[in-house]
Design brief:
This protein is an alpha/beta fold and 190 residues long. The protein has a single domain, classed as Glycerol-3-phosphate (1)-acyltransferase, CATH 3.40.1130. 37% of the residues lie in helices and 18% in strands. The chain is built from seven helices and seven strands. A seven-stranded mixed β-sheet has the order 1-7-6-2-5-3-4, sandwiched between helices. Helix 3 links the parallel strand 3 and strand 4.
Length: 190
């Protein structure tokens, strides 16, 4: 219930202040089976923008620093956010994510941090997709880096567009890295 209320509030704010536009909302599995939603990440508003446009409830991976504030951390946990140790091979979180992908969908950012380009990314999306045997839906966010640039304290007015599309080129023979490359290429193409 907290998830749905928060999602609706985020969507209202995104529509009012950023004129958010969604394309490809029919790209998600129709049978409600779990999937990975992988997106570029340029701004702090990206998790809200991508998640609010998804018709399914998502679990998020987020840097553990966001959980330092006890109240904020408790709220994030109620929103299905899992802390991730950045810069390390966080095997505990990866095992947890694999377990969750049996019944829940997961939003991740292959870049691992906010960046304007997708040239540097991690293969975690490939690992999770292959090990869990779940499909991947790509998302590309445009404009978020302009309305809330990295390091900015205040929003600027502007438009944000999120485009979704399934990554339908993944095969059983693909390595983790191959899958990650295909996902990132799909994101870039949107």
């Amino acid at each position: 219930m907290i998830y749905e209320i928060s999602k609706n509030i985020a969507l209202l704010i995104l529509k009012l202040f950023f004129k958010i536009e969604y394309v490809g909302r029919d790209s998600f599995p129709k049978d409600k089976r779990p999937f990975i939603l992988a997106s570029n990440h340029a701004s702090n508003i990206d998790p809200f923008a991508v998640g609010a446009g998804c018709p399914h409830q998502l679990t998020y991976l987020a840097k553990e620093e966001l959980f330092k504030n006890k109240l904020g951390g408790a709220y994030l946990k109620r929103l299905n956010v899992i802390p991730l140790q950045r810069g390390k091979n966080d095997l505990k979180t990866m095992r947890l994510a694999l377990g969750l992908l049996k019944t829940r969908s997961l939003l991740i950012f292959p870049q691992g941090t906010r960046s304007q380009d997708l040239d540097s990314f991690k293969s975690g999306v490939g690992f999770l997709s292959k090990k869990a045997g779940v499909p991947v839906v790509a998302a590309r966010i445009e404009g978020s880096g302009q309305v809330l640039p990295k390091g900015a304290r205040f929003f600027k007015s502007g438009r944000v567009k999120v485009t979704y599309s399934p990554v339908d080129t993944i095969t059983e023979l693909d390595s983790y890295e191959d899958i990650a490359v295909k996902v990132v290429e799909k994101i870039k193409s949107l």
